[in-house]
Amino acid sequence: MLCLFFWINFYDITKTVISKTEIIKKLFKKYKYFFSNHEFRISLFVAIAFLLVSLIINYYASVYASYSQSNSVTDIILSNIPVIDLSFLFIYGFVAFVCFIGFLALFRPGILPFLIKSIALFTIIRSIFISLTHIANFPSHIQIDPLSFIRNFSFGGDLFFSAHTGIPFLMALIFWHSRTLRTFFLASSVFFAAVVLLAHLHYSIDVFAAYFITYSIFVICTKLFKKEHKLFIDNEITN
């Protein structure tokens, strides 16, 4: 009986190992297929370079907006809800969300060019917006640790529009064909919208406008990056 027990467990473990090995082999074939394509490599390289440039632009735009901020204004929502310290969710919750996107893309190399370029364009357009109007944070907003790594990307004055709301919504639009992912990303967008409002880190207009602007950005991406979008759709259909 004991031998049978060990045999069953050994069989299950072996089956699991073989299954994982097959997944790795299939993933390796995918990467080999895409990276053997010169056009794909160029597109991915451009996407990564575009993303790096967008992050640099975002950095300086955020510094400028924070340095130039003037006075705070009243807000019909923030003025009527208590402030709650949700700094942990604001920082690490969003980091976990970004890691999930990275993990998702890891198993879908074909989606990388369109995904990265869309995020980069989102970042650049947002950088332009935050540079235009310099409103100070709502008076009762929570304080984010100045030593936190997130201060390398945000300095407090980059309010309009909310990236915590916009990025998840952009992912929902990109993965709209998948009901599961669409639902998850939409729920994430609403969740982070609630976080930044309850923490008084964004004005209500920053949050609600994010949906309209992000949708426009997505439409621009589908027109501007047609080849990458087609590759994205084709890759998703085969998965």
With helices defined by DSSP (H or I, 4 residues minimum), what is the helix count? 8
How does the major sheet shape up?
A: none
Spell the H/E element sequence: HHHHHHHH
Structural class: mainly alpha
Poorly predicted spans: 1-18
- Report, as a whole number of angstroms, the end-to-end distance: 42 Å
Instruction: Please give the number of β-strands.
Output: 0
Helix content: over 70%
Radius of gyration: 21 Å
Mean pLDDT: 86
Domains counted in the coordinates: how many? 2
Which geometry do the CA atoms define? elongated
Percent strand: under 5%
Plain-language structure description:
It is a single chain. By secondary structure, the chain is mainly α. Helices cover 72% and strands 0% of the residues. The protein has eight helices and no strands. Helix 3 packs antiparallel against helix 6 and helix 4 crosses helix 7. It is elongated and about 55 Å long.
Give the tags.
about 70% helix; 2 domains; mainly alpha; about 240 residues
Summarize the structure.
This protein has helices spanning 2-35, 38-68, 87-106, 112-132, 163-174, 179-198, 204-224, 226-238. With 239 residues, it is mainly alpha-helical.
